[in-house]
UniProtKB/TrEMBL annotation:
It is found in: Cytoplasm. The lineage of its organism: Bacteria, Pseudomonadati, Pseudomonadota, Alphaproteobacteria, Acetobacterales. It catalyses: cytidine(1402) in 16S rRNA + S-adenosyl-L-methionine = 2'-O-methylcytidine(1402) in 16S rRNA + S-adenosyl-L-homocysteine + H(+). The keyword rRNA processing applies. Residues 236-278 form the RsmI HTH domain. This is Ribosomal RNA small subunit methyltransferase I. One of its GO terms (cellular component) is cytoplasm.
Length: 283
């Protein structure tokens, strides 16, 4: 095992998923950096790994980097793990890894479990290209804006399967927001992957939203949303369609424009101008 920084993936539930190379690497480390020593210590004990543990998390990572770089320069073997899965992926470690790379120090990884990729492979949705978004913002307004930005990117040509992490108590509202933003697209909710109650539910976004509105979800969750279809209406056609629907439903021009702007991510002024133009075109 070369001196340097080793990013080591650990299980996302099933302890049998710790790879033999991960065990060898952790055993050979001078120091193991982890998010929470209470989570990592039992995993190490199970494999008879006695290397010292040190907590590295979002709150102390920036401050710890200089000292850890010193140790790496001195020839130490440092292993970095997170509570579960692949470090750096919605987990700490990026600052340290980048600093070590910029300092010209050796950095490598022992690959392994990752909930996003496992959910993608079990979703039944096109695996390529995919866009991993991590967690959507927890607050409603910011979440809606994030979804509107994705819709706007799709309006500009992005077509990718979308992968989100979500907490169980926010799943129902997250799916409702995704259904509002992306309509009836196919999607999947992957729960408790690699664990005893593993479940993948595949359905349209509105059907999944309806299901989880009445069935509280438990455990750890990944949401996967199918891509915008190649033959889906263009951004402009979709804006026209939404405006027409809103106006037909009796909304004022101003309200219809505001609603369509919010759901597409387009500037309100632009949508309002288009609504006026449509009114003129249709006499
Ligand atoms: N670094 C991890 C990885 O590589 O998978 C992800 C860490 S992130 C802080 C934790 C989130 O990942 C959870 O809230 C959940 O969305 C997802 N996750 C982790 N383990 C999971 C599992 N066994 N089943 C489903 N989702 C999981």
């Amino acid at each position: 095992m070369a001196p340097g920084l080793w990013l080591v993936a650990t299980p996302i539930g099933n302890l049998g998923d710790l790879s033999p190379r991960a065990v060898v690497t952790l055993r050979g480390a001078d120091l193991i950096l982890c998010e929470d020593t209470r989570v990592t210590a039992p995993l190490l004990a199970r494999h008879g790994i006695a290397a010292p543990l040190h907590a590295l998390h979002d709150h102390n990572e920036a401050g710890e980097v200089p000292r850890l770089l010193e140790r790496l320069r001195g020839g130490a073997r440092l292993a970095l793990v997170s509570d579960a899965g692949t470090p750096l992926v919605s987990d700490p470690g990026f600052r340290l890894a980048r600093a070590a790379m910029e300092a010209g120090l050796f950095v490598s990884a022992v690959p392994g479990p990752n909930a996003a990729v496992m959910a993608l492979t079990l979703s039944g949705l096109p695996p390529l290209p995919f866009l991993f978004m991590g967690f959507l913002p927890p607050k409603e307004g910011a979440r809606r804006e994030a979804i509107a930005r994705l819709r706007a990117a799709e309006g500009a040509g992005l077509s990718a399967t979308l992968v989100f992490f979500e907490a169980p108590h926010r799943l129902a509202e997250c799916l409702a927001a995704l259904a509002e933003g992306f309509g009836g697209r196919p999607a999947a909710v992957a729960r408790e992957l690699t664990k005893r109650f593993e479940e993948v539910r595949r359905d349209s976004l509105p059907a999944l939203a309806a299901h989880y509105a009445s069935h509280a979800a438990r455990g750890e969750i990944v949401v996967v949303v199918g891509p915008a279809e190649a033959d889906a209406p263009s951004g402009a056609e979709e804006v026209d369609r939404r405006l027409r629907d809103a106006l037909a439903a009796g909304q004022s021009l101003r309200d219809a424009a505001a609603m369509v702007a919010a759901s597409t991510g387009l500037p309100r002024r632009q949508v309002y101008a288009r609504a006026l133009e449509m009114g003129r075109e249709e006499g």
